[in-house]
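User: Okay, second chain of the day. Same drill as before: sequence in, structure tokens out.
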Amino acid sequence: MASFLTKSEKEYLLTLARGAIKARLMGEQFAEKKPPSKILLEKRGVFVTLTENGELRGCIGYLEPIKTIVQAVRENAENAAFEDTRFMPIKEEELDKIKIEVSILSPLEELKVKDAQDLLKQLKPDVHGLVIRKGWAGATFLPQVWNELKTHDEFLSNLCLKAGLRPDEWKDTSTMKFYVYTVDEFSE
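Assistant: Same drill. Structure tokens below.
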């Protein structure tokens, strides 16, 4: 997806994310600067991913456009740093080692599929993020996950596992819903 944000808007959001994490870590109030444009006040789905030495350190976000981009980046940066239950909260000595990545999502688009082969045809590696839902179970992988799970089968099987489903459950397309999205992704 072509970027819809300018370089200064991206820099603002990355600075905002790091500032929010640092302020919470230090127990300080965070003085947020005024956004450089109104586009950052649009409501969008947003994920913030933290890595340390190339390894995932936290990733939290909103699929739906429930908050403005500014609010979502700030909240999800803090949540990725301190609330991702897969990891211990970050410590002060880690702050300079952490790399921040922001992903602004396009609206979700339901994929209407006839069968597993149709799903494989419609799902585009390195382009689509995917949400799967079956009953109460659901999970998503951002498009960046294709960098590590390169085949359709690997991507879909691991996403099913993340949702608490059997790894091959995606093949029964009659019982599942699939939603794709793209991202405008940028990092420090």
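The longest helix spans residues 7-26.

User: Thanks, on to the next one.
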